[in-house]
Amino acid sequence: MVRKSRARSSSLFLIELILAILFFSVASAVCVQLFVKSHLLSKDSNAMNHAVSECANVAEIVASAERAEDVLNALEALYPDASRPEAGTDTQDNLFNGTIFVFYDNAFVACKEGTEAEYFLAIHLTEEENTLQAHMQMSKMENPQDLARADGQIVFELETTHHVARRTDHAQR
Questions:
Q1: DSSP secondary structure string, 54-78?
Q2: Which of 2, 19, 63, 153 has its CA at a distance of 20 to 30 angstroms from the CA of residue 161?
Q3: Rounded to a whole number, what is the largest CA-CA distance in the chain?
Q4: Tell me, what's the pLDDT at 6?
Q5: E-only strand ranges, the chain
Q6: What is the distance between the terminal CA atoms of the chain, rounded to a whole angstrom?
Q7: Angle at 146 between CA 107 and CA 139, to 5 degrees
Q8: What is the pLDDT of residues 109-158, one digit of tens each?
Q9: What's CA 82's distance to the chain center, in Å?
């Protein structure tokens, strides 16, 4: 008779152990999902911070320039690996070839156009009379090998307008 009660207590202990393992496995699965979500949010936040900073830098260059060509030259000097589409290419909003692309790797270091690029900043400049407009869009590249530049997840977008004061003849003296 002693054996029967021992079998019952060991089976209860085994069920209790199985339930404890089940509880901890469910809790660990939830915790892993929370850690993964936290990591993804941190990565997205880091990308947003870098995108805002880079767009603000370009906006400052636009605010200090008098012509769109001055902005493009300053950007090419600041980002030697930047690329400008050739005239006649079919890029979005390419009004007077005032478009420039700056490519970044996963650490947001400017790099050459190619497989190491994970993000790109598209800067579209337009100039009308005394107004200089810049539209900046930082995007994550979907497929770095296929540089369909209009595709990609937009990280940050900024539009800025700068009024250029034209000097008259008597103001230049």
A1: HHHHHHHHHHH-SSHHHHHHHHHHH
A2: 153
A3: 117
A4: 60
A5: 99-104, 110-111, 119-128, 131-140, 153-163
A6: 116
A7: 45
A8: 988 887 688 899 999 999 888 888 999 999 998 765 545 445 668 999 99
A9: 16
